[in-house]
Fold GGDEF domain-containing protein.
Amino acid sequence: GCVFHVTASIGVTVYPQDQGDPDTLLRHADQAMYLAKQRGRNQYYFFDPVQDRRVHARREHISRIAVAIEQDELQLFYQPKVDMARGRIFGAEALVRWQHPEQGLLPPNMFLPLIEGHRLQYALDWWVLRTAIRQAALWHADGLDLVVGINVSPSTIQYPDFTSQLMQLVDEENISTDLIELEIVESDAIDDLDAVSAVIRQCEDVGVHFALDDYGTGYSSLTYIRRLPVQTLKIDQTFVKDILTDQDDLNIVEGVIGLARAFGREMIAEGVENTEIGVRLLELGCNCAQGYGIAKPMPFTEIPAWVRQYRFPSEWIEVAKKLSAA
């Protein structure tokens, strides 16, 4: 006779932990069975109602974010960047906010993590690019030239024809590439460093520079600074804001400044929350900064008035003069 070896993929759900009617319980057991099949032959899998609720909630949130993009519920706020040594306002970082109809103004950490790795991230990145470049062009038309820092995910810049699409947008708005800087966050997963580096070089060839944002928070800091041809390192605020009281943070900031010099990169410190931090950064050799001690992020329409009214702390000017005379 013949011998048959039978294997089974089994899906299980348990009542009352999984609270549903009979049809729902059968559907959940069926879902668990397919997950068991994905694990390989002769496996079983228990349906997880808690995880299922999380998955459904994420899908609902993602759908709602898609609606927010379509219905223009998003807006950009801008945080100024300054050269403390020269007393010059030279740029602003574009930061997305969600004007939620029920929950009010939501910061990016309330919704951006939900679309990380999802195709909607690409749509949001391009919404930010289009909006920021258009608004930078409007500032330029009014006589205000600020380099706008625009965050973009590594996955988006690896899409085919990213550089040509970006330049088409630049041409449509009739703006100089000197007023655009793309920022990629160091802690974002970069699966293909060579591919990302190639796109950065393409953009550099047409005049669009890159900055490595939140530098020092990732696991591959030295690899990134060596292999990514970015122009600027942005020192993460978690190290900067406590340099007056935490020796370890001060050592890290000094180390990043040394690396930036060694690799010929420009640098800007995030998290400058008071005048004294700015003074210490100037003494360390980091002249450019952004942070709440300079200005909080503000709507596009408020930037021109802020630029006209802002006065640099006299302490920065004095330190800069002493250092230049030394």
In short: The first strand starts at residue 10 and ends at 12.
